[in-house]
């Protein structure tokens, strides 16, 4: 019986260790920082999730227009990369998406893209702003990519702040939302205060296990 308990404990430890190795960084964008108009729906309005599956070299990215409403849409979405890495080496797979929107143009360069007047970013997703709602990245839609090109790449590689460049920030990500408010005439720049690493859930699980053993 003691042997069985030890075997079970080993299985639990291995499972928790595997969970800790997986790195997921989530950005729920829920703050308007430029002094303009926030989206009308409940925050977070947008969500970005980087997931490396526990191994370096390949990261899955999913962008979701979580709680945009009406004719609101994203036209720019910006991210950072570990300054020790070269963003021009990043390779993005063909997009997998839900919705009819036009796939964004993706640009990569070191500290090359500015969010409003605030901060310089390394990666820019440029979504359609014309063509009507059908072409725009709007409510409930999502798009996913697999990012490769750098052998050491992990989800944590995208957990860095922008280079300071204005009165607000720095931020780990920023997005410009248009089509807000009456006559869809307003827009705003949104971000998240800090990233949420879902890998910490594994730490919580271990702490819970320790508490139960006590």
How do the strands and helices of this protein lay out in sequence?
Blueprint: H1 2-21, E1 24-29, E2 31-32, E3 46-51, E4 59-64, E5 73-79, E6 91-92, E7 96-98, E8 105-115, E9 118-126, E10 142-148, E11 173-180, E12 186-191, E13 196-197, H2 200-213
Helix pairs in contact: 1-2
Protein name: Ice-binding protein C-terminal domain-containing protein
Pfam families: PEP-CTERM (PF07589)
Organism: marine sediment metagenome
Characterise the protein shown here.
This protein is α+β, with helices and mostly antiparallel strands. It folds into 2 domains: 38 residues; 172 residues, Immunoglobulin-like (Sandwich). The chain has 2 helices and 13 strands; from the N terminus they run H-E-E-E-E-E-E-E-E-E-E-E-E-E-H. The strands form 2 sheets. Strands 1, 3, 4, 6, 7, 10 and 13 form a 7-stranded antiparallel β-sheet that branches. Strands 2-12-11-5-9-8 form a 6-stranded antiparallel β-sheet, with no helix packed on it. Helix 1 packs antiparallel against helix 2. This is Ice-binding protein C-terminal domain-containing protein. InterPro entries: Ice-binding_C.
């Amino acid at each position: 019986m003691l042997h069985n308990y030890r075997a079970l404990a080993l299985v639990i430890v291995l499972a928790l260790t595997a969970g800790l190795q997986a790195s997921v960084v989530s950005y729920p964008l829920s703050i308007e920082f430029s002094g303009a108009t926030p989206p009308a729906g409940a925050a977070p309005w947008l969500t970005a999730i980087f997931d490396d599956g526990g191994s370096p070299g390949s990261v899955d990215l999913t962008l979701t227009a979580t709680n945009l409403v009406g004719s609101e849409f994203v036209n720019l979405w910006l991210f950072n990369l570990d300054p020790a890495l070269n963003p021009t080496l990043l390779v993005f797979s063909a997009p997998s998406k839900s919705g009819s929107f036009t796939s964004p143009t993706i640009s990569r360069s070191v500290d090359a893209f500015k969010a409003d007047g605030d901060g310089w970013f390394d990666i820019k997703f440029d979504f359609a702003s014309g063509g009507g709602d059908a072409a725009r990245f709007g409510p409930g839609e999502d798009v996913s990519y697999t990012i490769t090109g750098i052998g050491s790449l992990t989800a944590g590689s995208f957990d860095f702040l922008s280079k300071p460049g204005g009165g607000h920030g720095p931020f780990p990500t920023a997005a410009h939302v248009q089509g807000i408010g009456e006559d869809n005439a307003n827009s705003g720049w949104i971000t998240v205060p800090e990233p949420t690493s879902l890998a910490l859930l594994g730490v919580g699980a271990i702490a819970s296990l320790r508490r139960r053993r006590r």
